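User: Could you check the structure of this?
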Amino acid sequence: MTQHQPPPVVLVFAGSDPTGGAGIEADILTLASLGCRAAPVITAITVQDTINVHEFYPVNAEGVISQARAILEDMPVAAIKTGMLAQPETIAAIATIVRSYPDIPLVVDPVLASGAGDQLSTESLEDAYRSTLLPLARLITPNSLEIRRLAHQGDSIDACAQELLTLGCDKVLVTGTHERTERVHHKLFSRAGLEESFDVERLPYSYHGSGCTLASACAAGFAHGIEDIDAIGHALHYTQQTLIHGYRPGMGQHLPHHFYWATGKPVPDRS
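Assistant: Sure, the predicted structure tokens are below.
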């Protein structure tokens, strides 16, 4: 009987999104699509649709730790990814866990607002990111709005990235969807400066879950043992394809189609 290599396990900390477009649901879909096993740790329950986040209820730090410890003591985790963390205590708890596993690559998606602009952060939450979690990351994936909030450096994305790199993280991938450019420019920074720029077509719609998808796709590449620059390039290509094939099932934003490659059937669209 042929022995098959089991899919690598990615431990994911994120909030639950009932639309399935973002949050832990997007993480699970992305990781499954890219050949990984997602081990989801719920950090918050959200009440949202494709238009707005209406409410959210954080899971207490003890509950987050208990979920994560159960997985880490049972499965060989190949990468860790964080999304919505909801409160400073949660960030501190996750940082404590990550420090116990320094050889597992960490991808931090610092979710400070929803795709529609609903605020999910506070100043104390941003301080907790800077002081405890960002220094431990192999990769941080903020959009251009998030990195300016985290770095307090005005309009210069390059300066913002360098400030976050001084905290201790290895690389910063800044997505450029929110910038007013004809094409979208994603920039990867390391301590040596701008390492790579990825230019992609600007798509006509607003998307719910693109940041979660990208960060999880990067974590999938790390879990498979792919070199950083290649893992990030593959993740950006995959994410762009999920958006190109995205669709609008509700009355708000479009959602990524995480398994665009697996079906030839038309996808329902209410646009």
